[in-house]
């Protein structure tokens, strides 16, 4: 079966990147994705930000922006699936082409610009899947032309409350001009203050679903400390490190290496893991972390966990390896944890930082 999916993925790569992605979503909607019935080894179960995952490998947002195929991706073996980024109003995104493969570098550059069908359609899809098993997170952002960007996040939180297992505030896309400025201290105070207020109203005396914050990898040490402190102050449950980078490492060889946008995939692994370790040091166990950026193997996932992540997410590697990759990573990670004598993911979290300190 895995061979079939690898062949289908290779065929998809003969199409331009964005049509190939649409065709993949269509195929998944028609039930053509891989289905795993294998239960994850109990060593993989972990609780992050209050959310207990059957396995720590998640689908990063951007793959399923409109919440069209979360169940198909859960069936492929992901422990959780994050849909989005959704914005209150539908948005066309940037002019095409805006998605580029960098095959020699096992990387992707995108400048999609939050293209999505809007909150109403997204919400209706989540309503339809109510009661189904499998953890689905809702990642949201602001419309490009919004006059009140912080207000857009509150609008999304209110509309989607009760429909997702967790929420992610995305302030880290490089493709909406000025969005990453929301990572600055005063902007974060305003945004997270308004989110906390809305959350308190929505929660009442019931338990609240976790809310995570997704950050960019292009940050300096003082920003990492500031963001960590504010995330804790405003009661967020985890920080997701990281989105794509605007850096262009000298190592890039592919024809599209100079396209504008966010770089993801293998060349992001080293940088995003280093920033993750810096967040782990700033957090000092007081807020959970999720590691994203360049994961293409069990070894990569394990490196993120040892750098301080309780769970991980991936997207770009799927472009090259296809959806059967998730089971390969699950199996490999299980073996690596056991070989090193860990009884759980939790025991391995930050083990590299402990060695270094
Ligand atoms: C085509 C594309 C679209 C993306 N769209 C989003 C998005 O809408 N929201 C978001 O938070 N991250 C988005 N991302 C970033 C990914 O979620 C992830 O953080 C990043 O790609 C690094 O992980 P990877 O190297 O495994 O791809 C996108 C990435 C790609 C490649």
CATH class group? Alpha Beta
Tell me the CATH topology.
Answer: TIM Barrel
Question: Strand pairing plus helix content: what structural class?
Answer: alpha/beta
| Second rung of CATH, namely the architecture | Alpha-Beta Barrel
Mean pLDDT: 95
Regions with little confidence, pLDDT below 50 for 5+ residues: none
Count the helices. How many? 13
Indicate how many domains the architecture comprises.
1
Order of helices and strands: HHEEEHEEEHEHEHEHEEHEHEHHHH
Biggest beta-sheet profile? 8 strands, parallel, barrel
The end-to-end span amounts to 45 Å
What is the molecular shape? Answer: globular
Radius of gyration over all CA atoms, rounded: 19 Å
Query: Strand order, biggest sheet?
Result: 3-4-7-8-9-10-12-13
Strand content: 15-25%
Let me know the CATH homologous superfamily. Aldolase class I
Number of strand segments = 13
Percent of residues in helices comes to: 40-55%
Bound molecule kinds, no repeats: flavin mononucleotide
């Amino acid at each position: 079966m895995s061979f079939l999916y690898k062949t289908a993925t290779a065929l998809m790569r003969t199409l331009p990147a964005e049509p190939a992605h649409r065709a993949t979503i269509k195929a998944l909607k028609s039930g053509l994705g891989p289905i795993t019935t294998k239960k994850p080894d109990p060593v993989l179960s972990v609780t992050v930000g209050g959310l207990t995952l059957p396995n720590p490998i998640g689908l990063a947002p951007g793959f399923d922006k409109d919440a069209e195929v979360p169940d198909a991706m859960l069936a492929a073996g992901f422990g959780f699936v994050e849909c989005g980024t959704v914005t209150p109003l539908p948005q066309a995104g940037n002019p095409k082409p805006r998605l580029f493969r960098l095959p020699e570098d096992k990387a992707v550059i995108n400048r999609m610009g939050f293209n999505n069908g809007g909150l109403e359609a997204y919400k209706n899809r989540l309503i339809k899947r109510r009661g189904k098993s499998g953890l689905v997170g809702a990642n949201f952002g602001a419309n490009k032309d919004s006059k009140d960007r912080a207000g857009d996040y509150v609008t999304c939180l209110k509309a989607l409350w009760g429909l997702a297992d967790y929420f992610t505030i995305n302030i880290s896309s490089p493709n909406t001009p000025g969005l990453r400025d929301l990572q600055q201290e005063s902007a974060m105070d305003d945004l997270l203050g308004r989110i906390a207020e809305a959350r308190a109203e929505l929660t009442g005396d019931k338990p609240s679903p976790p809310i995570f914050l997704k950050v960019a990898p292009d940050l300096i040490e003082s920003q990492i400390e500031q963001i960590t402190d504010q995330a804790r102050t405003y009661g967020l449950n985890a920080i997701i490190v990281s989105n794509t980078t605007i850096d262009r490492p000298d190592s890039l060889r592919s024809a599209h290496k100079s396209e504008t946008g966010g770089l993801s995939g293998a060349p992001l692994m080293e940088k995003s893991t280093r920033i993750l370790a810096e967040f782990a040091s700033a957090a000092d166990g007081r807020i959970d972390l999720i590691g994203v950026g360049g994961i293409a193997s069990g070894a990569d996932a394990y490196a993120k966990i040892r750098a301080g992540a309780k769970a991980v997410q991936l997207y770009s590697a799927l472009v090259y390896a296809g959806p059967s990759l998730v089971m390969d990573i699950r199996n490999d990670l299980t073996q690596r944890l056991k070989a090193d004598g860990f009884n759980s993911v939790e025991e391995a979290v930050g083990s590299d930082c402990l060695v270094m300190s």
